Amino acid sequence: MSEKAQIKVNDNGPYRVKGNVEMVDADGNVFETRKTFSLCRCGQSSNKPFCDGTHRKVDFESEPRAE
């Protein structure tokens, strides 16, 4: 049985994706990923859709909570 996938919304940072996930672009091309990777939420990464840590430099703020 494969590990259940999880997406964690980090405060003031990226989405952390963990588990057996296949990520594809709009054309169906598969991105090369690891078992755990981070996706940009600030929109400023030079490695989109992946996070490169730029959110720390641009004072990105977002702390959503599930209801």
UniProtKB/TrEMBL annotation:
The keyword Iron-sulfur belongs to this UniProt entry's keyword annotation: yes
KW Iron-sulfur (keyword) present: yes
Residue stretches making up the Iron-binding zinc finger CDGSH type domain: 12-61
Protein name per the record: Zn-finger domain of CDGSH type-containing protein
One annotated GO molecular function: metal ion binding
Lineage, broadest ranks: Bacteria, Bacillati, Bacillota, Bacilli, Bacillales
InterPro entries for this protein: FeS-contain_CDGSH-typ, MitoNEET_CISD
GO cellular component, one term: cytoplasm
Native organism: Lentibacillus halodurans
Domain of life: Bacteria
Keywords: 2Fe-2S, Iron, Iron-sulfur, Metal-binding
